[in-house]
Amino acid sequence: MAGLTTKLGPLLLSGLNSPAVSNKFLAVQVLNNKLSAANIFSKSSGQLEERMKPWDYKKYGYNYACQIMEGTTKRFNDNTKIIVVEGPPGLNKGKFCQELADELDMVYVPGPTMDQYYTNLYGYDLRDLDWQFNYPKNKSYDEKKFAQDPLAQNGGLDRMQDALQFIRARTYNELLAHLFNTGRGIVTEKCPHSEYVFTEAAYNMGWIDPTSRTKYHKIRKMVLQYSLKPHVIIYLDAPVDVVQAKIRERANTTHPWEKNSPVFENTSYLKMLYETLMKREYLKQAAISSKVLMYDWSDGGDTEVVVEDLERLQLEYFDKYDKQQADWRMFKEDNYSLARRRYTDRKWVNFCFSHLAYMEAFRIEPSNVELLDWTDTAVKLPGNVRYDDVIDVGEPKEQCEVSLLSEQQPFCYNLSRTFLHDNAALEGYFHERE
Question: What's the whole-model pTM score?
Answer without folding.
Answer: 0.83
